[in-house]
Each structure stands twice: as structure tokens, then as C-alpha cells.
DNA sequence: CGCGAACCTGAGCAAGCGCTTAGAGCGCTC
DNA sequence: GAGCGCTCTAAGCGCTTGCTCAGGTTCGCG
């Protein structure tokens, strides 16, 4: 944990953001956006949380919207990586689906501050940036749809409506970011396990 | 449909809001809040959509936040009424749960513009108003939990974690407001039916 | 030591914000 | 038909917003 730097795990969440001042600003922005929402957050608030003057923000980022885009891009990349890793492992469709849901959901719970911004501030992005992010989300959808489709073809699952069920599964997982509370009684891993079970039921996985 | 006025159904969505100018403003606010979010919406935009000057808004509402509160209050009341009606009917727990989910979800799809504001702009409310709305949401949660609990006690459902499953079911239903698109390929009723089936699977209802 | 690049601040600009005020128009009653 | 209450508008106030810019500090490097 101390010497790890670019191992791409979750050890240093914003390790790819340099220099350090830019990372501090970005972390401050994540907190502020998650608490109040993008539009209700001022650049003065972000700079203040990072211990800087408002003008310092514009040395590292062209606009407030660019900050949101960086957060959204990195967050989507990480979430997609989690899903694709689980989907690519060996095992039955049920095992891969459970694994994917468990890691995707526990990430949304563990890092719910980031996830809230990533999942619910999409519409504040500018047109070009939004197009880029929407493409990532389509890949996310495709990964889940593929696992469910595999399970249906293998006779493991009973799913009358694959696209609809895919949508519902992803919607269920994403919404964890909205309600999860760190002070609550469940750990991120517990929520991940619960949700993996619920999703297996949704696709009619044989026990 | 033509002569119905105060029958409390969904025939005249904002029928309880009078006078007509106040209703026009409220409908305009719902559209604007749903499209851009509360904080990104200006009072000039709301008044403009209602065909009035900005000052006209303040004859009918004390502040912009009061508008949001009225929308949120009426929307929560309606959604809660749908759930309680379904929950209070005769039938097995599975029938009541399916009924509740179907009507709750198809309302969120049909009136997704309103529902988006109601469900996702909670945090923009002032402290007192938010407390009031949160109380309504707890009642919503209690209704669903009760049906699921009934089903477990009757041996109809297999649910290891009732509070967790209740949370997941409501989360799934509510999130319909976020992704539903009127131009999409599914009707609100189709989504309601699909979701009722998925929820019955989640609670392990016997076929 | 001298110099340039990188980083940051204090002050502030133009624009837009929520909301207020003075008064106009209109339909109602007595 | 004068007076009154209700509804609405034009104008604008005070403030905050995202963002800029000239200048200062710090640092590595010759």
C-alpha cells in the first residue's frame, strides 16, 4: 500500500492524476459534486476544499466542465474494467455474472462518492464529452448482455427478455451509488454478495 | 376522460393545482427540472415556458424551492397512493407484490418527467421540506417491506434478507424514471409487466 | 549566482442569478 | 362608475457565478 503507485488496482484511486495539486483539486471536486451536484457546486468551493485560490483551478483545468469530464472518464474506465475482468474469467455464465455483479456493486458502494458523480451527473457534461462517455456506457451494457446471452444459450438461465433484463440488472447495480451510506449497517462486500444473489434469481439461474 | 376533473386518477395529472396560471408554471417547472436539473434551471426559463414574465412566478410561489416542494409532495403522494392501493387489495402476497410493482413502475415510466424530479432532486429541497418528503419515502418503504414480509410468513417467498431485498426492489423500480425514454421501444405497461416478473423472481415466489 | 519555467494569488470583470418593487390592466361589487 | 382586489409586467437591485490577468514566489539547472 505504501510503495504501490501505478498497479492499476484501487489502492491509489486517483493515482493517474498528476501533478499532486491537480489531484487534490479533482478529489475536492468529486466530494463537492457528490454532495451538492455539479451545478450547485462553485469553483470557489472546489478550490477552497483543495486549499487553493479560485484561480489555481484554471492552471490545471480549462473549465469546471473539464473537471467533471476527467472524473467521469476515469470512473467509467474503472467500472468497465471491473466488469470486463469478471466477464473474461473462466467459469459458467452464472459464476461470471455473480462475479461481475459482486465487484461492480461493491465498487459502487465502496466508492459511492465517485460513483454518484459518475452515474448521476452525466447530463452536465458538454455535448462532445457526453458522446464519449455514452459510448463507454454502451460497452458496459454489452458486457452484461453477453454474459446473460451466454447463460441463456448454455441453458443455465431462463430469461424471456434479454435486453430488458440486462437494463434492469445494470439499473439495479448503478442505483447503489445513490442510496449507499457509509454509516449504514452494510459493508460494500455484503451489498455485493446480496446483489449477486438477487441478480442470479432475476435471470432464473438453476441452483 | 373529457368530463373527468377531480376523480383523483391520473386523468388530470396536476388537477389539484389552481389557479390555472399556477398550474402552467408548475408544469413548466417539471419539464425544466427534469431536463436540466433544479440548480441548472432559472426562474426566467420556467416563466418563459409558461408564457409569462419572470415576476409572475412570485405571485403564485414564494420561492423557486417552493415550486420544487409542491412537485415533490404531489408526486410522492401519488406514488404512495398507487402502492398502498395495490397493497390493500385482496389476494396472495405474490399477487399484491406484482400489482404494486406493475402500477408503481408503469407510473414511473409513463410520467417519467415528473418522476425524475420527484426521485432525483430531493437534495435540492430545503431542510424542513426534505424532512417531510423523507417521511413519505419511509412509508413507501414500509408498504413494500410489509408485502414481502407477509409473503415470507405465508411461505410464498424465499427471502433471506427482507430489508435488503426491499431496498433493492424499490431502487430497481425508482431507477426506471432515470432511464425510461418515451421514444424507446417499450410502453410503460410493458416495463411494468417485465419488472413485476423480475421482482417475483427476486423474492423467490413459487411458480 | 542568474535565469526561465512552473505554479499560485489578489483583484476583479462581465454576465447571469433569485427575487422585489411600482404600477398597469381588468373584472367585480355596491 | 368609483373603488377594490387580483393578476401580471417592465425595470432593476444586490449578489454570486465562471473565468481572467498581471504579478509574485519557488525551484531546478547552468
From TrEMBL, chains A, B:
Q: Please indicate which superkingdom the organism of origin belongs to.
A: Bacteria
Instruction: Identify the Pfam families for this entry.
Output: TetR_C_24 (PF17932), TetR_N (PF00440)
**DNA-binding region spans which residues?**
42-61
UniProt keyword terms in alphabetical order: DNA-binding
Under the heading Gene3D superfamilies, the entry gives: Tetracycline Repressor, domain 2
Q: Start and end of every HTH tetR-type domain? A: 19-79
Protein name from the UniProt record: TetR/AcrR family transcriptional regulator
Amino acid at each position: 500500500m505504501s510503495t504501490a503507485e501505478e498497479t492499476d488496482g484501487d489502492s491509489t484511486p486517483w493515482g493517474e492524476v498528476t501533478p499532486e495539486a491537480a489531484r487534490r483539486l479533482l478529489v475536492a471536486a468529486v466530494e463537492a459534486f457528490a454532495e451538492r451536484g455539479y451545478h450547485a457546486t462553485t469553483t470557489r468551493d472546489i478550490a477552497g476544499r483543495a486549499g487553493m485560490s479560485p484561480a489555481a483551478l484554471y492552471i490545471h483545468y480549462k473549465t469546471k466542465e473539464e473537471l467533471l469530464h476527467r472524473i467521469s472518464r476515469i470512473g467509467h474506465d474503472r467500472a468497465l474494467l471491473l466488469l470486463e475482468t469478471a466477464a473474461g474469467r473462466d467459469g459458467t455464465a452464472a459464476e461470471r455474472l455473480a462475479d461481475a455483479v459482486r465487484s461492480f456493486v461493491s465498487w459502487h458502494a465502496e466508492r459511492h462518492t465517485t460513483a454518484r458523480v459518475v452515474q448521476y451527473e452525466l447530463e452536465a457534461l458538454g455535448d462532445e464529452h457526453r458522446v464519449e462517455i455514452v459510448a463507454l456506457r454502451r460497452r458496459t451494457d454489452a458486457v452484461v448482455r453477453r454474459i446473460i446471452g451466454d447463460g441463456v444459450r448454455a441453458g443455465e438461465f431462463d430469461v424471456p427478455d434479454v435486453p430488458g433484463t440486462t437494463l434492469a440488472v445494470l439499473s439495479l447495480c448503478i442505483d447503489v451509488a445513490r442510496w449507499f451510506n457509509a454509516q449504514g449497517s452494510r459493508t460494500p462486500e455484503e451489498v455485493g454478495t446480496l446483489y449477486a444473489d438477487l441478480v442470479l434469481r432475476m435471470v432464473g439461474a438453476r441452483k
